[in-house]
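$ fold --in a.seq
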Amino acid sequence: MRGKTQHPTIPKPERQIKGKFRPRRPKSRKEEAEFGPGKTDILVCKKCGAFYWYKSWKARLSDYPELKQSKRIKFVLCPACQMIKDKKYEGEIILETVPSDFKEDIKNLAKNYGKRAIVADPMDRIISIKEKRVKRVTAKRKRGATSRKEFKGLKDIR
């Protein structure tokens, strides 16, 4: 049996076939990221003004290390603005039976929380706050979970 090599540990479809290579390895987590592989240009959101470089969206271009270096700039919609346009969201908080004296405080707390979140990560924002019952729609699931901790004193939180 000198001419043929048997590979008992490697399954038949993955064995190297003469003249061909094994199938490509599975994509890494970075390659299968939520927004696809990284772009080489600087992207600017048409709507909110967020900047994209080094595989993530940032609030300010002044943080870019090679600002003097010439790079192409493209104007696009960032993923968060695209979600708002498509009327999609990842998290929702509904506060029911809120005492009227706390309503304004809770609304201000949510707005301030949203301002801090967008500075830390422009893709992480509060999309809307509705008045009838305090309903907060977020662009990230994680924000919904963390703000539940802030509103834990109220009874009806979903």
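$ fold --in b.seq
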Amino acid sequence: MLLRRSPTMETVCMQIVLVLLLLIVHRLDGSLSPALQDLNQSQQLPVDLEPEFEGTIQNISSPTGREAILTCSVKNLGRYKVGWLRASDQTVLALQGRVVTHNSRISVVHEDFRTWRLRIRQLRESDRGCYMCQINASPMKKQIGCIDVQVELVHRADRYSNTEAAFQEHFPVCVPIWRIFPNSISTLRPMRLCEHSRSACVTL
């Protein structure tokens, strides 16, 4: 009769380790353990997502003296940076949250590195034009939005009225009138009086 050998301590330990590994990989209900779930999800995510624009920059129209705000929305920015430039001459206005131009009327703000706003206060006619929101990806990505600065009519009217007043000050307008002299009732002699002066400028 053959005697069965009792399992050694090494064999028992190996069996215990094997059971523990099986429990780690699969729970009793068949689902993955939390550690393996996190590992599986991390493997499914892309290593480096490319940044993309969300929507487009809306063009705006605003009168002089007011402010204009251009909004640029970006997702998956990651390690990349957002810059604002003037489209006409490629002048860099701001990079990320830092303004690099020497124009104190310009500022830039962002919300969670997703929504970027270029703000121009006290608009002037020289601010009219298009502005570029740029991402320094490879290849470079950009969007353009334009500002139409409207000159208020009251400003133009003031300009013209001031010019007219200055002209009349230096060149008085003479208005012809008629005067009856008492010595000759039947004789009418014309005389012009300056509009802005009490004395006659021309006597005929």
